[in-house]
Amino acid sequence: MKPFFLFYYLLSVMLFIIALPLLILLSFKKKYKESIPARFFLFKNPPFCSTNAIWFHVCSLGEARALKPLLELLENKKILVTTITQTGHNEAKKYNAEVRYLPYEMYLPFWVKPQKKLIVLEAEFWYLLFSIARSRGAEVILLNARISDKSVKKYMKFAWFYKKLLENVDMVYAQSESDKNRFLALGAKHIEVIGNIKLAGEIKKTKEYEKPDAEVIVAGSTHPGEEQSILEAFFAYEKNKEAKLIIVPRHPERFAEVYALIKRYGRQNNATVSRFSEGKSFAADLILVDMMGELNNIYAIGDIAILGGAFKNDVGGHNPLEPAYFGCKIITGKHFFHQKELFKYVHHVQYVEPDEIADALEMTKELPPSMVEEQINLEPVVQKILKNKRSW
C-alpha cells in the first residue's frame, strides 16, 4: 500500500468521525433521508452484484439524465450506476441498470468490485474511487469532463493532489479546449475534446397541457433568493396583468417555503395563487409547480423562461437546452459557470443581474425565441470508450 494512499484513507476516517454528529442530524432531513444513510452508513447500499461491467458514476439529476442517450447505445452491455444525490438516484433507477449510492470514500476498499470500465461524468473527482477501481482492473475514464472558470484557481492551488488523482485516469474526454488545457496543467496525460454530451440528450414533454390565453412566464429550476427577485420583477413588468408566472423550484423540499412566499406576493398585489398539484390548472396569476418531472411540460406552454441557478454565484446555472428547445425567450443570471459550454450553443439569451429581470422582461418583445444551434453524435464517443486501451 502506497504511503499517500494510506495517509488519505486515514484522513477520510478521521473526517468521518469529526462529521458524524452532523451526518446523523442531516440524515433526518427530507433532502438527505436516503442519500446520507446509504452513503455514510451503507444502509440498504450493498456492493454491486455484477462484476466485469461498465460502471458510470454521476452526481445529481442533470448528469443522470445525460446518461440516457449513452445507455441507449450500450443497451446490450451490463451497466452499473452510482450517484450522490437522491434526485440523481431516482433518475438513474429509470434505466436498465444496477443503481447504488456511491459510498463515502473510507468504505470503498471493501465495497468496490472489479469492473471493465469506470466512467465518471463532469467534475466528480474522488481519489480513492479512481485508485481502487483502477487497481481492481477498471479503465478509468472522465467523460464530459470540465473545470469551470470559478473553480480553476482552487484546482491549481492543489495541483500536486490532482496530479496524483489524475495518475489513476486513463482517458479524459473534455467538454472544451479550455477544459483540456486546464486538465493538462493538472497533469492529465490523454485528453480529447468531444463537446458536451448533454447536446445529444432527447428533450421531450411527457404530458400535453393547453396553453393559457395569456403570456406565460416560467421561472424554472429556481433556488433560494431567486423567487423573490423574480416575483418583484414580475409585478414591476408592464404586462403583468396580462401574464401568468409559473414557478418551478429546483428542489422539492422547498415547495412549502416557496408557496408561502408566492402567497405573500399574491396578497400584496391582489393576484390569485395556486398549487399545481391541487388541480393541475393554470387559471391563477401565480402558480407553484410542486411536482417533479413537469418542467419540460411547462416550458412547452411557456413564452418566456427565467432560468434559475445563475443569479447568485453559488450554483453555476442550469441546462438552457430545454427551454430553448421549446422556443422560450430565455432570461438568466450571469453566474452560469457550470453550464458555460452549453450556453455557447444557445442564442438570444439575456444575461442579467437580479434587479434587471423586469427590464429583461420588457426587452423580450423585441427579441426572437432562443434556439439551439448544434448537436453531438454520441456513437463515435461510445465506440472510443469501448475500444479505449490502457496506455501503461
Automatic annotation (TrEMBL):
Protein name: 3-deoxy-D-manno-octulosonic acid transferase
TM regions (residue ranges): 6-26
InterPro entries named among the record's database cross-references: Glycos_transf_N, Glycos_transf_N_sf, Kdotransferase
Family that this chain belongs to: Belongs to the glycosyltransferase group 1 family.
Keyword Transferase: yes
Cellular component, GO, one term: plasma membrane
PANTHER family with a match to the protein in the record: 3-DEOXY-D-MANNO-OCTULOSONIC ACID TRANSFERASE, MITOCHONDRIAL-RELATED, 3-DEOXY-MANNO-OCTULOSONATE CYTIDYLYLTRANSFERASE
GO molecular function: Kdo transferase activity
Active site positions, chain numbering: E63
Pathway, per record: Bacterial outer membrane biogenesis; LPS core biosynthesis
Cellular compartments annotated: Cell membrane
Signal sequence annotation: none
Function of the molecule: Involved in lipopolysaccharide (LPS) biosynthesis. Catalyzes the transfer of 3-deoxy-D-manno-octulosonate (Kdo) residue(s) from CMP-Kdo to lipid IV(A), the tetraacyldisaccharide-1,4'-bisphosphate precursor of lipid A.
